[in-house]
Amino acid sequence: MHGIDLTEAIDAAVIAGEKKFSMVLIPNRQQGDGENRLDWRTTTLTVTTSKTLSTYTKQLVDDPVENQKIWDWAQQMYDEWYPRYEYLVEKGLPKADLIPVDENEYTKTVITTGSGVSGYNQTTLETVKWTEADFDRKEPTRTIDSLIGLGEYSDFDKEQKFDKYGGLIDNSMRQEATGFFYKAKIGDRWWVIDPLGYPCFIRAVSGVGINYLSSPNHTAAAIEKYGSGEKWGLAATRQLMDDWGFNASGNTGYLDVENRLIIQGATGFVGSYGTHIGTNNSKGGNTTFAGNNTMNVFDPAFVDWCDEKAKTVEAGKDNEYYLGRTIDNELPIEINMLYNYLRLSPADPTYHYSYATAWTWLVNFTGKENPSDEDITEEILQIFTGFVYDRFYYLASNAIKKYDPNHMVLGSRMLVGFMNQPWVLRFAGLHLDCLTINWYGEWDIPVEDLKFVSENANIPFMNTEFYTKAMDSGLDNTRGAGWVVKTQQDRGDVYQCYTLRLLECKNLVGWHWFQYLDNDPDPKVIYTTKEGVKAWRDQSSVDANKGIVSNTHEPYTDLVNSMAEINKNVYRLIEHFDAKYAK
């Protein structure tokens, strides 16, 4: 019997905020030196990390005046937060009614290997080819032509008029025209309202750029096909808007030519502060930190840092095509965040304020002078994580609004670990205009998960990352979080299944497909060699068919046609679902 070290996988799950993760070990599917493939959805294992408090140390520095200053600041953090907590407790939760889908609408089946599966050897970085035997999952799939009661759907939007932002020209739904985007509730459904006052559903593709992934091959292919960057930008914009029904992007250059797309920007706060003080440990997409993966949001210096970073947004404050800005990306959200802060070294000056604030919070909240493990419940763990995010969202949002009061603050592109953290969502609702969630691992997001978000956040949300990879692209698809399917038509069917579910949720105001271009598998692009050791430049961007266009800027026709069916009929579909719920 062979032993398999799962430490790294478990650590990654805990850091991502998961209480549970799943796997299956397949002994006849070995990788390189004998590692086995992990499928994170088949078998469930509950992960329980150590819950033992460290020593409560009050003497952090030798100077008694300086020491008291730290603890006074920690008490101030608690005093500023507690009234917001009391307000949320008194307010209670709104009601979110979501009904299950009619099972008769799942008329297709798509074959897949699963989501978040690695087809490579993590030690040697060698690719392991998928085989036919790996495609052993059958997922029921709902597409637009199977919707009961929808009737004839083709070309619905030829009867509808859209403004230049892709908003629906419907005077019965028109709100105040402010010249900028903002959120509003019309009836019981949340909307983004565009600068002309019309309801506007966001259909976006992330990373629309001639060289978004820093590949010279991408640039060369675009120039060869279109003649110049400007001509590529004109063609890409027209394809996205006119042909495929998208209206937004987080773009990179050459798109400001004609037929403007809505732009979503990003400003980093806590990640860049971690880099500044030497605690940012990020590799690839999600943001991780030294010091038990804690964020230094309680440092007094972080207040000034947020103000300085927010000054960069002032230049774009009058841009009518700017939807708003996300703040950081995929930050730590985990159930044991309180323990992570309490176990910081009291002697380490990097964490003096983090350590003192966590202990001060626990002492105040429990009413115990020297709390023990027995005083910490799961609810206390959840509320403390909300306390951390309340501080971060409060500082970052206020800083942005100081220099740009015109645009929306769009959250921190959460990982799905937020599903264990209702208080993160509740405090987010106090400071953000819209939640942003990178939601992987679901073929068809369960009703109860959408209800959880809707009830706890009480603000709209967008799904800002999802995708599916197909093997007919010619790419190995060894990396990335999306599902692995066989064909581009399969990708299109999954897009429809996934987005139809989202449209049923009345708190959902848009989505972002990730991404415009495929990953370029050229070794010169994906590898870097340091001291003779080969390593990924970005572990999530290696050889995945994430794009709606290939590495040579050729559209995946079956995929984009399926996307267009949804995107161009999005308002009719919302009308259909709202009428269905009304019954």
Question: What's this entry about, in short?
Answer:
This protein is an alpha/beta fold. It is 34% helix and 18% strand. 48% of the residues are buried.
Helical amount: 25-40%
Structural class: alpha/beta
The third-level CATH topology of the largest domain is TIM Barrel
Number of helices: 16
First CA to last CA: what distance? 58 Å
Task: Compute the average pLDDT.
Answer: 87
The CATH superfamily label of the largest domain reads Glycosidases
Q: What is the total tally of β strands?
A: 19
Number of domains: 2
Largest sheet: spatial strand order: 12-11-10-9-8-17-14-13
Per DSSP, what share of the residues sits in E-state strands of 2 or more residues?
15-25%
Describe what this molecule looks like in 3D.
This protein is α/β, with parallel strands linked by helices and 583 residues long. It has helices at residues 7-15, 64-91, 216-226, 229-243, 270-277, 290-293, 300-310, 337-342, 352-366, 378-403, 422-431, 447-457, 488-504, 523-526, 557-567, 570-582, and strands at residues 20-31, 35-46, 108-115, 137-141, 182-186, 189-193, 199-200, 202-209, 248-252, 262-267, 322-327, 408-409, 435-438, 461-465, 468-470, 483-485, 508-513, 527-530, 533-536. It has an eight-stranded parallel β-sheet. It has a four-stranded mixed β-sheet with strand order 4-3-16-15, with helices on one face. The protein has a three-stranded antiparallel β-sheet with strand order 5-6-7, with no helix packed on it. α7 crosses α10 (378-403). It is globular and about 70 Å long. Residues 1-5 and 23-49 have low confidence and may be disordered.
